[in-house]
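FORM 7B: Structural annotation worksheet

SECTION A. Query
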Amino acid sequence: MKQIKVLTVSFNTRIENHEIPAFRGAIVDKVGRDSILFHNHLAGDAFLYKYPLIQYKTIQGKPTIVCIDYGVDEIHKFFENRDWSLKISDRWLDMKIDSLNMNQFTMQVWDKQWRYSILNWIALNQENHEKYLAIESLTERISFLERTLIGNIISMAKGISWDVDKPIKLSISEIKNSKPVSLKGKRVMGFTLDFTTNVFLPNYIGLGKSVSLGYGVVRSKKNDQ
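SECTION B. Predicted structure
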């Protein structure tokens, strides 16, 4: 069991999904590159291979920052600036807060199931993508993706120092689409699907690869239990 805080901040302007990297870069320029949680880069070309605690995305077209655990304490480095304006795609945006939501959650494996959707989930690296394509059975492909998604939840748990002490159960109920998406100049497969699991997941957190750039956004669906 682990208690975490999640802060979701949306601004009252609009950007396109492909502008999320520029949005992140503009925020990093404001706070300075010494604040590693904002960009997960170490010295030189090294990366901090850890679940991002500050994530950038769009919610209904609005640029949004989702801060998790220690990321909640770090976000003040942006807000303490007098000028919040950002330059994105050769235009200046006057960033004013549209909504700010702070919640505390208990992360644990429960005895009931929760229903979620996940948008543009990048589940597969190049090696796993080849394994996935080699699977002929649809049932086995879904099982492969279910194991991958459980692994993503475990990686997230490690990133927030949550020790998962019970088996995670997860079932994909519907794959709505799978399509190539552009990531750092490369085409990778993005899945949008519905699933159930016995782990409670906070709204708008990311799972999978490149969650800091708005991929793999989890949203809760109406739960019957």
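SECTION C. Observations
The chain has a mean pLDDT of 92. The radius of gyration is 18 Å.

SECTION D. Sign-off
Analyst initials: ____
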